[in-house]
C-alpha cells in the first residue's frame, strides 16, 4: 500500500471539520450562538479523532491491513490539534483570557477540571509523536507512556457527560464506543495472559516475548 | 477575526413576520387567489399591543434567533429541534383550567383568554440558566389578571403551572429526560407581581409554537426554564410544587431559580452571560436587572440556600 496515496487526502479530510466552522463563522450559518457552536463542535471533533485513533489498532488487527497502523500518528495528532483549538476557544471566547477567572473555573468546576487534565495528558503524547522521541525513550517506555491515551479517552467522555444539562444520550453513545475500544484491549490482554500461562510461548517462540504472567511450578516444595 | 458581526438587518425584519412564517402558504394561496381574481384577506395580527412602562429599552434580539434557538425539550433537546418540529403542536382547540385553592374553578378557552385584558407589549430580558440571554418583545397580560378570574382563596400560597403533553406531536416526550408533563411553580406573590405575564405573542404576532404557543408564562427575573410553555392547567396550592427540574436535579435547580450572578450553578458560573448576537460577554445582573421591582419579594431570605 502506497501511503503517499492515502496520507495527503486523509490530511485534507481531517481538516474539513475546521474548515466547516471557519466557513460557517464567516457565512453566519452556525445559528444563534455561533461561539458556543464552534466551542462545542471543536470539542466533539477532538473526541471523535481520539476514538478514531483508538480504532486503528483493532481495525488493523482484524483486517490484516498493517499499513493502517502508519496512519495512527497523524490521526492522534489531529485529536490533539482539535483539543488545542477547543481549549483555545474556551480561553478566548468564553473567558477572554481572564486568567484568575480561568484558574477559579478549573479548580471549581469538575467538568472543566477533567477537560484540562485530559488536555494536559495529551501534551506529552503529542510531544513524543516522532521518531526521535521513540528512539530517545526506547520502544517500551514510549509505549507505556502512550497507554495513557486510554485514560484520556475515559476522561474526555466524563468531561462531555458532566457538561450536558440533562440529556445524556450523546455522551452515553461515546461512552459505549470507548467501552468497546477499551474492552477489546482488556480482552486481548486476558487472551495473551491465558496463552502465556498455558505455556504456549515456550512451545513455539514467535517474535519478541514480553511475559506478563509467570506460571508457578506445579508443586515447588512437597 | 473568526466571528463575523451579525447582519444589521435580519431577513425577518425586512419581511413582515406573518408573511415570513407563512411564506409557503402565502405563495400557495396567492396562486389560488390569482385564479379566483382576488387577493387573500390579510392575516389578523395580535399586536402591536399597548406599550408598557415595564419594558426595557435594550435592542430586541432578532426574531429569527428568538424563534430559532429554543429550549423546549418536548420537541427535542437540541436548540434547533423545536423550530424544526414544533409546527405539529395542536394549538386549537385549547383550554386552560384554573383549579385547586380557588373559589371559582374555571376552564377557559383560548379565545376567551385572549379577550381577558388588552394585550401589552413587554420588552424583557430573558436569561437562560445555561449562560446566554436575549431581549424579547412579548405580547401578553399580567398573570394576576388570569388568576383573579378564579378568585384564589386565602389559603393559597403557591401556583403550579402544568404544561401540555401531546405524545403524537412531541417527539421528545418519548425519552425520560424530564418528568412529563413539564411542571413549573411560583409563590403566589411572585405570580401576582406585575412583571409576571402570560404571553400569547411576540414581535407583535401570535407566539410561534416553539416559543410556547398558545400561551406561556414569562417571569423575567428568573432563569428561562421557570417560564413554562404551552400551559394547560394552573393549580393553586398551599405547599411548594415540585417542578420538573427540581426532580431532575435537586442540587442544581431550586424552586426559586432567581437570576443571581453570585449563586453559581454547581457545574458552571452564573456571573456572566452571552447576549445572543454579541461577541463579548456581559455581567449578569441581580434578578436579571429587575432587582428594584422584585427585590422586596425576597427580603430576609438566604438566596444561597433558597436558590
Write down the Rg of chain B: 20 Å
* Portion in beta strands of chain B: 15-25%
What's the architecture of the largest domain in chain B, going by CATH?
Alpha-Beta Complex
The CATH homologous superfamily of the largest domain in chain B is termed Oxidoreductase, molybdopterin-binding domain
CATH class of the largest domain in chain B: Alpha Beta
Q: Biggest β-sheet of chain A, characterized?
A: none
Tell me the distance between the termini of chain A: 58 Å
Mean pLDDT of chain B: 90
CATH level-3 fold name of the largest domain in chain B = Sulfite Oxidase, Chain A, domain 2
**Coarse structural class of chain A:** mainly alpha
Low-confidence stretches of chain A: none
SS class of chain B:
alpha+beta
What number of domains of chain B?
A: 2
Largest sheet of chain B: 8 strands, mixed
Helix content of chain A: over 70%
Radius of gyration of chain A: 21 Å
Tertiary shape of chain A: globular
Write down the domain tally of chain A: 1
State the share of residues found in helices of chain B, binned by percent. Answer: 10-25%
Q: Helix-strand pattern of chain A, N to C?
A: HHHHHHHHHH
Amino acid at each position: 500500500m502506497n501511503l503517499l496515496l492515502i496520507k495527503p487526502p486523509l490530511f485534507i479530510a481531517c481538516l474539513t471539520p475546521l474548515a466547516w466552522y471557519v466557513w460557517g463563522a464567516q457565512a453566519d450559518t452556525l445559528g444563534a450562538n455561533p461561539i458556543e457552536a464552534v466551542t462545542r463542535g471543536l470539542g466533539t471533533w477532538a473526541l471523535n479523532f481520539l476514538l478514531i485513533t483508538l480504532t486503528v489498532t483493532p481495525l488493523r488487527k482484524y483486517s490484516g491491513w498493517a499499513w493502517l497502523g502508519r496512519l495512527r500518528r497523524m490521526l492522534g495528532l489531529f485529536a490533539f490539534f482539535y483539543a488545542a483549538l477547543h481549549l483555545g476557544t474556551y480561553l478566548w471566547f468564553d473567558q477572554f483570557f481572564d486568567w484568575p477567572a480561568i484558574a477559579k473555573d478549573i479548580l471549581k468546576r469538575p467538568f472543566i477540571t477533567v477537560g484540562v487534565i485530559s488536555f494536559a495528558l495529551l501534551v506529552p503524547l503529542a510531544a513524543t509523536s516522532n521518531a526521535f522521541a521513540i528512539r530517545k525513550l526506547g520502544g517500551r517506555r514510549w509505549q507505556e507512556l502512550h497507554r495513557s491515551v486510554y485514560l484520556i479517552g475515559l476522561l474526555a467522555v466524563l468531561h462531555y457527560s458532566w457538561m450536558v444539562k440533562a440529556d445524556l444520550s450523546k455522551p452515553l453513545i461515546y461512552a459505549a464506543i470507548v467501552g468497546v475500544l477499551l474492552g477489546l484491549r482488556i480482552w486481548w490482554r486476558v487472551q495473551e495472559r491465558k496463552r502465556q500461562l498455558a505455556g504456549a510461548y515456550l512451545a513455539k517462540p514467535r517474535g519478541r516475548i514480553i511475559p506478563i504472567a509467570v506460571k508457578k511450578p506445579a508443586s515447588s516444595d512437597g | 477575526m473568526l466571528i463575523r458581526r451579525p447582519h444589521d438587518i435580519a431577513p425577518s425584519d425586512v419581511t413582515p413576520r406573518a408573511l415570513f412564517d407563512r411564506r409557503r402558504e402565502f405563495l400557495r394561496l396567492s396562486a389560488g387567489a390569482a385564479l379566483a381574481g382576488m387577493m387573500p384577506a390579510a392575516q389578523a395580527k395580535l399586536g402591536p399591543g399597548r406599550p408598557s412602562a415595564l419594558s426595557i429599552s435594550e435592542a430586541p434580539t432578532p426574531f429569527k434567533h428568538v424563534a430559532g434557538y429554543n429550549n423546549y425539550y418536548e420537541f427535542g433537546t437540541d436548540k434547533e429541534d423545536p423550530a424544526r418540529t414544533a409546527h405539529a403542536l395542536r394549538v386549537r382547540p385549547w383550554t386552560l383550567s384554573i383549579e385547586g385553592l380557588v373559589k371559582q374553578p374555571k376552564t377557559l378557552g383560548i379565545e376567551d383568554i385572549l379577550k381577558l385584558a388588552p394585550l401589552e407589549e413587554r420588552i424583557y430580558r430573558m436569561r437562560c440558566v445555561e449562560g446566554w440571554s436575549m431581549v424579547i418583545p412579548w405580547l401578553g397580560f399580567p398573570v394576576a389578571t388570569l388568576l383573579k378570574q378564579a378568585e384564589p382563596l386565602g389559603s393559597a400560597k403557591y401556583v403550579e403551572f402544568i404544561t401540555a403533553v401531546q405524545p403524537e406531536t412531541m417527539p421528545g416526550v418519548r425519552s425520560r429526560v424530564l418528568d412529563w408533563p413539564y411542571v413549573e411553580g411560583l409563590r403566589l406573590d411572585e405570580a401576582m407581581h406585575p412583571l409576571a405575564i402570560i404571553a400569547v405573542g411576540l414581535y407583535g404576532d401570535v407566539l410561534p409554537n416553539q416559543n410556547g404557543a398558545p400561551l406561556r408564562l414569562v417571569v423575567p427575573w428568573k432563569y428561562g426554564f421557570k417560564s413554562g410553555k404551552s400551559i394547560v392547567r394552573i393549580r393553586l396550592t398551599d405547599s411548594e410544587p415540585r417542578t420538573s427540574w427540581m426532580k431532575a436535579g435537586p442540587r442544581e435547580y431550586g424552586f426559586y431559580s432567581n437570576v443571581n450572578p453570585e449563586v453559581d450553578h454547581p457545574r458552571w458560573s452564573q456571573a456572566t452571560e452571552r447576549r445572543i448576537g454579541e461577541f463579548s460577554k456581559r455581567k449578569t445582573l441581580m434578578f436579571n436587572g429587575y432587582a428594584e421591582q422584585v427585590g422586596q419579594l425576597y427580603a430576609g431570605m438566604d438566596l444561597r440556600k433558597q436558590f
